[in-house]
Prior knowledge:
By secondary structure, the protein is an alpha+beta fold. It has one helix at residues 3-29; strands at residues 81-83, 97-101, 107-114, 121-122, 127-128, 134-137, 139-140, 152-159, 170-174, 179-182, 195-196.
Amino acid sequence: MTDRTLRALRGPLLAGAVAALAVLVTACASGGSPGSGSTSGSPAPSSPAAPSSSPSPSSPAGPSSSPAPSDGAAAPEPGEHVRGLPDGAEGTFDSPAGAAWSPTPGVLLVVTYGSSSCPRVAEAEAAWDDAHEAVVVGMVEPDPGPCTMDYAPTTSAVAVPSDADAGTPVTVRLGDLGEVEVRPRAKDATAGPVAWVPAAG
Length: 201
């Protein structure tokens, strides 16, 4: 090959080498490979992250597997009636009614037995009788209508005069159901023992 031919080819060869080098530099900068056809600088999309196995902080908590404790449940307020016995009390089927002090001072718990769907309940407030010898609790007759044929306790909370709950036994007259002598609480903030009306002979 003559010197003239070499000089003639030197220019195009040099230009081709510079162009190839430019393509190589562009491919490296874009993260691709030469000939991949991608000359943009945007990275390839990444695969989505796997979902976390822990719950989101805003997710509602599931129900507890353990039941809520029954100790320390709030005692009913005067005028309220709840099915069942006072907390810790033992029931009886030999008496139609009974009474005990609530953990709340000045509040008497009156228990009556009868149909759970049509219970006989106590009025919200009681007062001393004329001789100031017994606290009289008025009773409310159940609504007429179909009633279940069960025999279950219902507890009513009754407000009494402040001097009635003085830490000494007090006679309580439960309407026409009879009288009981209600003993004081064994200690503060606890319900007293239930005094049951004697069963009819």
